[in-house]
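Sorry, I am new here, but would you mind making up a protein's amino acid sequence and the tokens describing how it folds?
***
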Amino acid sequence: MKKVFPLAILGAAIGAAGYYMNQNNKKHVEKTIETLDEISRSAADTVSELAQEIDESEEA
């Protein structure tokens, strides 16, 4: 019994650390996805502006 208790504590600590790391990774993934979405929107806006400039220069 004396050997089981420290192993149980160690297992619980490892489980808690794993849970924390998993939650932390999920937050980083969410931030990365949000940033990529923002970059995508910015790129779409830039392409639209460039297309308008090209259309205007062809009309002139």
Remarks:
- The CA atoms of residues 28 and 34 lie 10 Å apart.
